Amino acid sequence: MKNMAKLAAMLATAFLCAGTAQAQETIRLGVSFYPFHSADDTKPDILDTIAPELAAEGYRVEKTVFLNYAEANPALAHGEIDGNLIQHELYMDIFNDRAGAELAIAQPVYHATFALYSGTYSDLNAVPDGETVFIPNDGVNTARALLLLQSAGLVTLREGAAYGASLADITGNPRNLKFVQLPLTATAGAYDEAGRTLAIMYPTFARSLELEGDAERLYVEERNDITDRYAISFVVNAKDLDDPKTKAVAQALRSDAVAEFLKEDYGWASTPAR
């Protein structure tokens, strides 16, 4: 009888464990770059950080890596993944307009440290007449770069110019700066080849030149109502904003653990958005 009771208890435990494993629902999240995905398996990322909290809620994270981050939104819109972590609100809005999609921000995560870099000048006042500035060539980041230059006092934009600003919106350029527009991935290389005069870059790309922290940052983007919309965020289809999976991920991304991760492992490139 004792053996039968022991066997029954073992079977019951196995059944409960199997039930728990089966109860774990998969959350498919699209990622493309650090800190949401690390090519180094020994280096933890944010999804590793939130996995235990989500597991406690009955969810398992399945990471889908997009080498081309532009593929992550179509995959989300078509229901191939449950959410992604590759963009800010302005990028999302452009995709929605062009694709007729209805993606929405579920949770802002962090603000990338967007900055004007210079290895030549240590002060804005030292920038000479006619100097060249390398800036991103895509619409969203061109506007962001021009807004940064305006806040630094290097250019003036027409009244009302904001997220859609282009070179044509420059109304004042007292230093007669010359602008060279390049893809984000090419800016760091061009900046280096030109003698590190002036370039506006994200820290991820500046890191390719072994620049971390404040190294060669001449002017850092200010946080305000406009730039707050550039927070890299957790995005889902609008119809899924109230889905329990969405709420679980959003809550985990607001945790102290994520804030600490950003501070300790990505502080050179970001500030938490929560």
UniProtKB/TrEMBL annotation:
PANTHER family: D-METHIONINE-BINDING LIPOPROTEIN METQ, METHIONINE-BINDING LIPOPROTEIN METQ. Belongs to the NlpA lipoprotein family. Transmembrane segments: none annotated. It comes from Paenirhodobacter populi. Residues 1-23 form the signal peptide. Keywords: Lipoprotein, Membrane, Palmitate, Signal. It is a lipid-anchor. This is ABC transporter substrate-binding protein. GO terms for cellular component: membrane. Pfam families: Lipoprotein_9. The keyword Signal applies.
